[in-house]
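Input chain follows. Return structure tokens only.
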Amino acid sequence: MFKIIHKDRSTNARVGLIKTPHGEVETPDFMPVGTQATVKALSSEDLQYCNVQIILGNTYHLYLRPGIDIIKNAGSLHSFMSWHKPILTDSGGFQIFSLASLMKTKEVGVEFQSHIDGSKHFLTPEDVIDIQLALGSDIMMPLDECLRYPSPKDHVEHSVGLTTRWAKRSVMEFNKNIKKCDNRPLLFGIVQGSTYPDLRKESAEQLVEIGFDGYAIGGLSVGEPQDLIYEIMESTVRHLPEDRPRYAMGIGMPQDFFEAISMGVDLFDCVVPTRNGRNGAAYTNEGKLIVRNAEYSKDLRPLSESCDCVVCKNYSRSYIRHLFNTEEILGLHLVSLHNVYFYVNLLRRIRQAIKEDRFLEFKREFLSLHCASI
């Protein structure tokens, strides 16, 4: 279900192809976050225009609203939101531990109260797999425990053991339900271990022994400094099999892609392009631009003169700034659309550079322009 097409000569960067029930995904790739069956401010047609290959949905949020029965009534999450390309669904573990109140972790599962209405819920690793099967997910994630940063080592060690035991149960439930499925979904394991390299190694080795279709690096970007993120990511990738896709969860600044891809990471997701876009931050080859700033009030240039998206072809910084200042919804839509287009196109350009053995050249070229203005 995964094959490597080309490896970079100078780094661990590679171009790969993931086969899923709803189509193939060429990697490295970025997944826009569609937490509640929508990538905020964008339609499925907008995502098609941006050439998005795969999006991310969230099991926790969809389980609470609209509820699995409503999505099953539509046939699948794909039908419900009119998106017919691949969908990766997160297990919801991060949201349970960060959003839910009165949360209690037990060996059998997690008890929590909804952040929406306070209703009580209990989910086991088996429940999370069954929910994602009902959603029709193409790539599924098992329930895991995601700890805050910093966390004491003894606490993290216990958490890694729990995550591994939940992973084993998830695989058993997954295998039980997909026996008769010819074109089955994929199940990824999630490596935890906080910022302790020895525990990351232990977690990775335990998950590889269980056996998954791919492996995610979880528990990053939860408050630790940037240098430590890169250090932990690199030490984790070292213990993951080369013939499986690797997914860095929640990593999504443009400069981060180059560092992670050079380590051999294949998939990314992050709310940055849409969340920051809704606040007036546009990402370009030349760096980040805060279009709400007064300096752009009479600026008739596009958000980026090197971008060929529909926003940059038709709208000026001056106009978009006006939309934000008057709280017009169109402003949120335009910058979000530009940002997703930019992110997806950037990953496409990285893939092409790897294929042509000029990844390091493109990295130096991009970062010299982009980071100089941040």
